[in-house]
Amino acid sequence: MHPASGKGAVRVVEHPEHRAITSAFERVEAGFLEHHAGQLSQLGVVVGDEHELRMLRRGRADVVISTGGLGPTADDLTREAVAKAVGRRLVLDPDALDHIRALFARRKRTLPAKNERQALFPEGSRVVPNPHGTAPGIAAKVGRASVYVMPGVPREMRQMFAEQIAPEIPA
User: Fold this and answer.
1) What average pLDDT is seen over the chain?
2) Could you report the per-residue pLDDT of 23-61, keeping only the tens digit for each?
3) How far apart are CA 166 and CA 115, in angstroms?
4) How far apart are CA 37 and CA 147, in angstroms?
């Protein structure tokens, strides 16, 4: 919660083509809202893009939860959008890269070079571990907002939110 306002705002940011992500998060948010009733001034789904994250600098939310866009493909741009929003460059996190390599090794697969980008994080952000997949989450501050970015795979996202992100959000 932002101390001046006493109200938090949660915004779910997602890629417009990922309706399944929104549906999965809506199931998770029902329990979350029970614990935060009366403390949230806003909860909604918005199109996730660089502009939306930059708007956070204007103090429109205390908490932002983003799903999707952390994969290895060229259209997975959430990490870049967060880096631009915080005004920092992307840096390689060696521990995250080791986790991704180990996951591929356990599956007896060769790590494609494109997956190494999943170990890039905005400088100064925190890696949110993903024990079930190759896309770790991101925790960062954008203005007054605490921003949490989770993978779009519903099972991974639900577990990351429930176990690692929801407990960090003040009740």
Assistant:
1) 75
2) 455 555 555 555 555 555 554 444 455 555 555 555 666
3) 27
4) 20
